[in-house]
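Pasting as-is:
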Amino acid sequence: MVIELAVLLAILAAICYVAYRSAIHEFQILQKDYEADTDWGTLLSEQLPLVIRDIPPSWLGGWTYGKTGTKTWPIIIAQNGTRRKVAWNAYLSTQQGQDRAPSVAVCDELAAPVKLLQTFQNWGYDGVTRPWWLPVGTPTPHLFLQTDCKPLEKTKAEWTAIVSTDGAPLELWVAHEGAVPDEIYEYEDPVNPWTATTAAYPWVGDVKFIEIKLRPGNVVLLPRHWWYAVRAAPLQEDAPMLNGHGAWWWRGDIHSVPSKVAALVGSQIGKN
């Protein structure tokens, strides 16, 4: 009896999985202006991408050109095959700072001085929390110029927050995992959905996706099982880059124990 029940449950699970993967997903996003008394738990329970407009400074954080442009934090940059230490404000004012965005490592070093961990914790204090979520981890800040793009990646956390803080708007390419074939895992190089062609990626023309334009002061929260890519929104050719330094944004992951374990296992598999 136990064996028959196990087999039946396995069959039902397989049927549910196939139906889930083959379903035509309705591409909807929720949009909400920030209000202090909002029941965020109810909105998040719908498991749909959520755009929150005009978030308060306590949610936005200090990762902006206006708040960091005069700071003398020491950073290490690579130039002409050598590594040297410069001040952050000096880097931003150089031609290199204008032509090339700082590396991920440089930005990561600045997460502590701009107090992004405390910023992300403010979200929990304001109700963006559930009893089974882990304490938030330190977000990762980014500064993108027009040529920069974070290629397709699937959310591994319960929720991933993308926060536009300053400069040019962001563009997000978002699709549910049911719309993206498993074939994507076969490619060694990261996939940029804005430049991907059907010749190189035959499936890309059939993917149903959403494009979200995220202006500074707004955030999008993506639930599990969603693919996303991020770039600085293209500007008109005659329009100067806002602040002269591209799009400022940060990403924060909200984990439960299962999602954290799955993310750690996945990262180890990726290294091997």
